[in-house]
Predict the 3D structure of the following.
Amino acid sequence: MSKIRSVFIATVTIPFLAMAAAAFDFEIKSQNLRLISALSENPDLLAFYEKRNFEPVWTGGDADSLTRVQALLAMLRIAPGHGLPYGEADIQHLNALFGQISGPGGREIAEAEMAKFFVRFATAMHSGAVEPASVTKHISRNRQPLAVAELFAGINGLNPAGFLTSLAPDTLQYQQLRKTLKRLDFTIAHGGWGRLVRAQSLSPGEQGEAVVQLRNRLIRMGYLSMSSAIGYSGGLVFAVKRFQKDHGLEPDGIADAKTLAAINVEPVERRKQIIAALERERWLNRPRGEQHIRVNIADFQADVIHGGRSVFNTRVVVGQSAGSLQTPEFSDEMTYVVINPSWNVPRSIATGELLPKLQADATASPELLFIHPETGIVDRNSVDLAKYNSRDFPFQLKQPPGPNNALGQVKFMFPNRFNVYMHDTPLRGLFQRETRSFSHGCIRVHRAQDFAHFLLAQRFEKPGDIWKNTLASGDEKIINLAEPLPVHIIYRTAFIGDSGRVNYRNDIYGRDALVYSALARMSVPSS
């Protein structure tokens, strides 16, 4: 090649290559700008893509991108089995996005929409689809979702499908609730639990059509083997007792009005409770403490859980159903107990309940102390109660330690913004009721002394002596626990009991209905 020809080729090729490179660089920058624009309202996602120089995760066209997309679509197909508001409609939407990739800016739009959808879905699978505080002010449950970088590290790993599966809680409760949901879906698809029991009440020894309806319904529910018996005896009595125990009813074998009302609840309604329970389990998808206290408001029970099993159980009384008196849901740490507690009466109780009683009878509750914010304790006999109302009553009321103290002999403290705690009570009769929602929000403990012994035993060799000596002194005393103990106040109207069978309770505060409605508004799958 001549020197002149070589120079000519160089003078033509170098500018052409430079122009091509500039055009390619311009196109890359344009693509990045389109992706930046599409992610502008999601700073975490934008930061993730900036860090990887805007390399696509979903729309790269390579085998790895395809594997990620297929894993996500497969997970969406089984999302209804988790009670999550995702499914076939979302699969169609994502497929439509990929169908538009060839259009102007289609790839960047698809990448951004896939990324946002993935984070939303993965968070729902791991930590719940609904923000707890949006349901009601009585739920203060702080979810702990995985960070965007952690989510993408998982989906970009060697096993995207395995990562997506691992997002859901791995607790036995969650696994068994999912199995229950599957069984309910099958039952609903095949006619439910049969005819309702048409009776006000039924007792052992009776016969008739209503007894047959009871028998057949319990067979369909799995409480009774196939039988042609027409009398209310033997196996049917035992089946009713098992049903009652699983539904928080007195297991006496008599199908009274409450029992029949529970038996006549249709599976589609029980399904809603299971879906709400699954969502609540996702809200708590984090370490709860090797040993922790669990209070189930709807079950009126408190347990100390160690290594996944209950090592201490007691009945409890919870807040009334009136809005301001409901026991809230939250988690905290118990740090100390108070033996021989005083009761600083909340102002709402002092002015709303006690003041009217004292105005009607000035000698009522003689142990109450009247405390003025400026002068301290005053002689209550010098107070003209008739001149005050709930707005201008200037005193704080305090009940010192004693046999009639509203907090009983001990209170268990986990300081929180709700001012809710667990405590003993002199009103022992309420613990015999099936429905135990009578307090002003705090949690009254049936086996309070045993609970105190259990906690003190983790610090003292002779907790009984500590208890007796402190109680005998009559003095209020704070005793710190050996170490803080996590407390989880939950609300489960559906849960797996010790028997391995699903248990149902009444939605005493109507909160599960709210949780389900919130999911339904997000198109939760329904039968």
